[in-house]
Design a protein that fits this description.
heterodimer; A: mainly alpha; MetI-like fold; about 0% strand; B: Rossmann fold; six-stranded mixed beta sheet; about 35% helix; globular; binds adenosine-5'-triphosphate; binds magnesium ion
Chain lengths: ~260, ~260
């Protein structure tokens, strides 16, 4: 409710700002109405681009989920493994996407596969770091309880460390969910292609800006934002389903 | 060879961690089956370490420790540990928490359900199987933790300040429940506590420890009759014993600070 009011206020301010600008500079900030119109006018193109981006984002996100979880499990096995691999993980994260994009294009070809790879790269790090942290910070007394019950290493991991790490995992997942659409758009921007599928939102943004279609550019921004909301909303729902019944942060205050 | 009547025997046991100073020195004591032995002493004198040795969670540095005629590791199946915190798994409900030790040992579900029901009834939590740990009070969580230990039908129960975090009233009630359960089950128990009154009420023998390194400074037998109940707290000989143990504890503490 409060968010809706704030939104309405923002739109009003925005429109006012548009008319506040001198005539020759109004193109810098199209009105929300103009953006909506552009959205309608370019609907088929934008819909296809959104689908392509969504596909890349989902694929990359899914890959990050699978490999991130796996990598965290491996990293949690021993401090030696962690010490050996962490610098390379950092390196992956520290290399800027535009530098890597041409490499990915070289290896995987332009379009969906490169976009997915870049999204994967962006999502991977927060997932691994958070999940690993969770896997190694299991309560010591719980570990001792399991040792006393003669639990196997396997049981200790699956019945204790993995469930105990779930809240950390979901924290990582929420960060990754916010990054996934951004990663896909940036990936598309630097490695997208009009060939075959016609590219995604990043590619479309390139086209619109070169054609000076600024309202349409704003429409792309809006769609990207909406995708981000969709992703993080989905993850929030998922974490509620997984943790709702036991984790303090989801405990309802009134029970 | 330990005498047949010994279930746990320390002979000249010492413990240190790595290159650190000795934490325990020259521990010699024999526990008879069914006995409840308490340890009281200043913080850091090695009480928890003593229990962890019996549990086989850490090894002795010197001397011999026999548990049920074997090494602590070999005897692990006969042991159950109750920690200071309830240490429940928050993602499992009460029933599944109580079943954890048996689940880990591969006990079939039907059998697990039987021992779980019995254990929960003993601690007065029958009917709370579906509750989540976060819905329980501190005392209830501790009861669940106790029930979990009891499902294993242990020969030896190790309790490390199990009631330390509870309010006085709950604590008293749980002490009485523990006495009643013990009367039914007859395990041997080692009980660490900071409360002299608790030690006297529950124990057959109280050991007073001194710190750096941890040693057994005094042994006080508690010849109070069973069954012990809330009434016992009012008895003159109980109160005399509490005074006696407190005095020994003070002596042990001043001796340690003087040294
Ligand atoms: N794993 C360990 N590594 C190194 N030192 C340890 C370890 N565990 C315990 N110690 C040391 O051994 C000593 C005794 O610890 P312990 O936990 O047994 O004391 P305690 O009598 O149980 O104290 P408290 O009453 O505060 O619980 C302490 O000085 C502690 O620092
Ligand atoms: Mg302790």
């Amino acid at each position: 409710m409060v968010a809706l009011l704030a939104g309405a206020l923002l739109v009003a301010l925005w429109t006012a700002a548009h008319y506040g600008l001198s005539d020759d500079r109004r193109y810098l900030l199209p009105t929300p109405l103009a953006v909506l119109e552009a959205l309608g006018a370019n609907a088929p193109v934008l819909a296809r681009a959104t689908c392509n981006t969504l596909e890349g984002a989902l694929l990359g996100f899914g890959l990050a989920l699978a490999f991130g979880g796996l990598a965290a499990l491996v990293l949690s096995l021993s401090p030696l493994v962690r010490a050996g691999l962490s610098p390379y993980l950092m390196l992956l994260q520290l290399t800027p996407v535009p530098v890597l994009a041409p490499l990915f294009v070289l290896w995987a070809g332009p379009g969906l596969r490169s976009v997915a790879l870049i999204t994967f790269l962006v999502c991977f790090f927060p997932l691994v770091v958070n999940t690993t942290q969770g896997l190694v910070s299991t309560d010591r007394q719980l570990v001792e309880l399991f040792r006393m019950c003669r639990a196997s290493r396997w049981q200790e991991i699956w019945r204790l460390r993995v469930p105990a790490a779930l809240p950390y995992f979901f924290t990582g997942l929420r960060i990754a969910a916010i990054l996934a659409p951004i990663g896909a758009v940036i990936g598309d921007y630097s490695a997208g292609s009009s060939a075959g599928d016609g590219g995604g939102l990043g590619f479309q943004a390139l086209i619109y800006s070169s054609q000076a279609k600024y309202p349409a550019l704003f429409a792309v921004v809006a769609i990207t934002g909406a995708l981000g909301f969709l992703f993080s909303g989905g993850v929030l729902l998922l974490s509620r389903l997984a943790l709702g019944h036991w984790h303090e942060s989801y405990a309802r205050r009134d029970v | 060879m330990p005498p047949a009547s010994a279930i746990v025997e320390f002979r000249g046991v010492a413990k240190k961690f790595g290159d650190g100073p000795p934490v325990l020195a020259d521990i010699t004591l024999t526990a008879r089956p069914g006995e409840l032995i308490s340890f009281v002493g200043p913080s850091g004198c090695g009480k928890s370490t003593l229990l962890r040795l019996i549990a086989g969670l850490t090894g002795v540095s010197d001397g011999v420790l026999t548990v049920d005629g074997r090494t602590p590791e070999q005897a692990a199946a006969e042991l159950a540990f109750v920690f200071q915190e309830p240490t429940l798994l928050p993602w499992l409900n009460v029933a599944r928490n109580v079943e954890v030790p048996q689940t880990l040992r591969g006990v079939p579900a039907a059998e697990r359900a039987v021992s779980r029901a019995r254990a929960l009834a003993l601690v007065g939590l029958a009917g709370r199987e579906a509750a989540w740990p976060r819905q329980l009070s501190g005392g209830q969580k501790m009861r669940v933790s106790l029930a979990r230990a009891l499902t294993l039908a242990p020969k030896i129960l190790l309790l490390d300040e199990p009631f330390g975090a509870l309010d006085e009233l709950t604590r008293g009630r749980l002490q009485e429940e523990l006495l009643a359960i013990r009367a039914q089950q007859g395990w041997t128990a080692f009980f660490v506590t900071h409360s002299v009154a608790e030690a006297v009420l529950l124990s057959d023998r109280v050991f007073v420890m001194a710190a750096s390194p941890g040693r057994l400074r005094a042994e006080i037998a508690v010849p109070l009759a069973y069954p012990r109940t809330a009434e016992t707290r009012l008895a003159r000989d109980y109160q005399d014993l509490v005074v006696e143990v407190s005095r020994r504890l003070r002596v042990a503490e001043t001796a340690a600070t003087a040294a």
